[in-house]
Design goal:
The chain contains four helices and two strands. It is mainly alpha-helical.
């Protein structure tokens, strides 16, 4: 499987929107590091982001909103938060 920036961004958005939890995101990132090829021209970027996500379950590292925002920006996305009344 070739991991593309779009899929990585989609997984980060699933985490931000609480469609997946942190352990699931960490497990996915670790699997992708071990089993995937990376999109041409994005190897270092994708590897760096996955490596950080893979450590997010360690208390000293974690995964903050600012981290997710920065990763998405580096992947080429602008993040816009919208408040929707429940």
């Amino acid at each position: 499987m070739t991991l593309k920036r779009k899929l990585l961004a989609d997984m980060l958005m699933k985490y931000i929107n609480r469609e997946i939890n942190l352990p699931s995101l960490v497990s996915w990132a670790e699997d992708m590091l071990n089993e995937s090829d990376f999109e041409n021209g994005s190897f270092d970027l994708i590897k760096d982001i996955l490596a950080h996500i893979g450590l997010a379950d360690v208390h000293e590292f974690g995964l903050s909103w600012d981290d997710c925002y920065e990763y998405l920006r580096r992947l080429g996305y602008n993040v816009k938060v919208e408040l929707i009344e429940a």
